[in-house]
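Milestone M4 deliverable, item 7.
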Amino acid sequence: MPGYEAMSSYLQAGPSRQEPGDATLARRRDGRRRGASGPVAYVTYLRPYRSLSFVGLLVRLGLTTTERPYDAESQRIAASLKPDLVVVVIDPQGEDARATIREFSENSTALIAALGPGPGTEGFSELFAAGADICLRESDPPELLVAQLEAFLRRLGPADAADADAITHGPLRIDPRRCEVSWRGSRIPFAPMEFRILQHLAERPGHVVSAHDLMRAVHDYTPSEREARASAKVYVRRIRQKLEGFDGAANIISTVRGFGYFFDPPSTGIDADSFETSAITGNDASASAPGTRLHDT
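Output delivered:
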C-alpha cells in the first residue's frame, strides 16, 4: 500500500514535532485525563493491518501504546488501562465495526478513533453515528495522519489535578484523590487503613518509619507502642498479601527489625548498607538482631 511505504520513510526520517496549541482547549468528555507519564493509546483491530507503521506514529507522538486484536477481553483491558485514545482498526462497511465503536463509546471516556483502509470514506458517517470522534485512513500521507492526530490529541487538555498529586514509583501508582492503587494499570483494592499506610510509606521512600509513628500518622489518636506494633504488623501483612499476585510488588515494604518499616521503590531498590540483609522469615525472625532487614513481619 503506497501510504504505508510513505509512512515507513516518514518514521525513519522522524516527523518534526510541534508543541500543542492552546492548552485551554476543552476536553471532549468529562473524566478523561492524561496518565502520569503522558497520554496512553490502546489500539485494537478487527482486520489484519500493518501495525508497526501506524503504531510507530503514535509512539513518535508521545503516546504509550498497547495493541492487540479485538476479542472478548478487549473491553476489560481498555477499562484497566484507562487510555486517553482508543484506535479501532476496522472495515468501515462491516457491521462489527459499528458495534465495536459503539461499545467503546458507551463504556470508555477515551477519544475514539476509527482507522479505515482508504482511500474512500464509505461507511464513515455510520461510524461517527456509532460514537467515533474521528475517522482516519491508512492510505493518507503520514504527514496528514500526524497533523490529524496532533490536532485530535490537543482535545485531551492538560493533565488534571489528580494526576499531579499521584505518587508513582515505577509500575506502582497511588492516587490519593481517588484512593486508588494500581500496578501496571491493574487496580488493586485496599481497605482505607491499608491505603493510608501504603501512601504514608510511599511518600517517604527509603526512610525507616517506626510502627508507632506509622500508626499515629494514619490514626485519629495516638496508640500505645504495643498496640502500634501489633496493628502495623497486621496491616502490613495484608498489604503484602494483596500485592503478591503482581510480579515485583510483594517486597516493596521491607521490615527493619527493631526500627520499623520502609518503602523500597520497585524501580530501583534501596541501598541499605547500614542494614544486615537477611533471608530470615516467619518465626525465625525473632532470633534476628536489631537492624536486620526483613521481607516478612
